Model the fold of this input.
Amino acid sequence: MTTPLTALELNELVAGLNKVARNLWWCWDQEAQDLFYKLSPRGWQNMFHNPVAVLREVSEYELRVHLQEPGFAEKVRAVLKDFNNYLNDKSTWAHKNAPKLHENPVAYFSAEFGFHESLPISAGGLGILAGDHAKSASDLGLGFVGVGLFYREGYFQQAIDSNNWQTEFYNPVDPHNIPLEPLLDSKGDRVICNVEIGMTSVDFQVWRVNVGRCPVYLLDTNLPQNEALYRDLTTRVYGGDSATRIMQEILLGIGGVRLLRKLGIAPSTFHMNEGHAAFLTLELIREKIALGKTAAEAQTLTKQECLFTTHTPVEAGHDRFTPDLMNYALQRYLTLLPLPFNDILGLGRVTPANAAEPFCMTVLALKLSRAANGVSELHGQVSRHMWQSLYPGVEESKVPIGHITNGIHLLGWMKGSVRQFWRAKITNNNNGESKMFRERFGADWASALNHADFWAKMTDPAFVSDEELWALRYKVRRELIEFARRKLMIQSQRVTPGDYIRFDQLLNPDALTIGFARRFATYKRAPLIFQQFENIVKLVRDQKRPVQFIFAGKAHPRDNDGKRFIQQIIHLSKHSELQGSLVFLENYDVHVARQMVAGCDIWLNNPRRPLEASGTSGMKASCHGCLGFSILDGWWREGYDGTNGFGISGDSHPDNVEEQDRVDSANLYQTLTEQIVPMFFNRDANGIPREWLTRVRRSMATLVPQFTTDRMVKEYTNKYYLTK
Ligand SMILES: *Cc1c(COP(=O)(O)O)cnc(C)c1O
Done:
């Protein structure tokens, strides 16, 4: 019936697939992912859902044979059409609202970018936020370029040994096998730049990650012409000691500006995502002095170009370097920057003349930015308090640090099965509302998901019924449990080969499933809930109303206290009373996160307030029908309204941390037993928890549209990027 494709048509489709594979747009396009999945289902599963690796795995012959299957070629064509429409769309939000940024884009500097599990170059929330920022900048059509580092060994992979102790190992990634490409000049040669580090001039190459319409450039010093010390500089995320750290930061800040100049990019704003990139301010000052400005003028002009986002009130999160280390690492660079060394040190000190004060990257960033912000309302307040001493004579409430609350890239986080559910609601339904969304958003049904109007419909049982919603909850909970069982089987076989556990008896698809996954920084208090051990055992053993827990997370390699928390939780998971109802999943990453935020019923978060700054994992839960249960810290203090999830303790906290732990754990347990468990198991004759689902609906309607990077990037644009 159908005529075979011509060689020319085949070549086009092959080229198109290769182009799609190297653009992270597929991270938030289910149909594109399905193509690569179909080419090699096992390869897709085993190689971190990586289209570039799948295309390498599948031979050219095999690919061409697949493309001759009529149905498949059609699907490829449809995806290529969507992809090209996306890239060429001239009617985006930014075309209308921020056209001048196309000429002079925002340059967004971040030491980590978390895009996807196939690109493991992020340590946690900060990187995920940067990745989501870039994805939404692309969706909005914003003039935006990212600058980061390419870590060959990325962040560590976690394995738990037989003592329940976290061990770290590193998988070198082959840059040719992941979704990025070398940055080439017009002649097809690699772009090479250099930067002065220590006594040397260090060369670096660049990898370009295509994030939809936006490029993100990752700098990499792993070149044969560099000394070994510098070749290895970009091996690991936050690897090595403070000397490695400062040198990585010189590369990021100063090297990043050099790269942009080489590419002829003239940013209107340099946005520093956390203090790691703050050396870029020195390079901007140097450029201006070289053009004849005085040091004072150069600083004033630089300040007008820079924006700074601070991300944590935790002290260790603010890089501080001794004057000796500064002198060592910037030695050669300082010969180019005609400022007295003491003046430079002063830029990183609260009290410039205080020789005992180390150089702080946050202080440098604050002093040389036209605006600065924290990442939630409360974090804004906390930051104003924390840095008030930088603004003598200014009242705390007037300290110039504002806030923009974080968000998530909704489409990128939404699990496939849940996406299908919403898709069917829009495209296959015959009720009036569905029709309205179809008419309003046309073929691009997914864009409806970024609209508050769509989520407002969630409180309407005529649009989505309790029965459907509950069936969806069962589906994703089962998917999570099966994912967890498979993962636990692999984990246990490594630790104790031959020791077969009955994996079908691990976890219960009917149980109230409570998830906790994040970095195991001690302030996040992972084991807090087990302070009430006897009570938790009672909850877990209740046959009629069973509760279960799924934990995951990595501790920083040098954080033994965090590792002890992991050890404690795994130890408990082997306790006879909890076995099968408490599990720890190894190697938390974006993929594990997506399974967990979707499948759990409750997303638990109990940081020591106010150290959370924002937190984002809970935002990923709402669109899947998982309810937040959190301390009123970071975003939850703004998002929680008493009807759309559950709170722990109130909008204040004791200063004494032991007292705080006691109060919070008692409150947590009380809410869990008096509200959450009874509500979850309060079923009608058909087994539906109506009251629970009312909360789920409220959570979708109120939280999903608000806590997205779509909203966040628009806010950055209106409040900061366009107000130079
Ligand atoms: C979302 C996410 C985080 C951040 O979670 P928090 O709640 O902010 O701690 C960290 N790691 C991964 C892999 C994530 O997906």
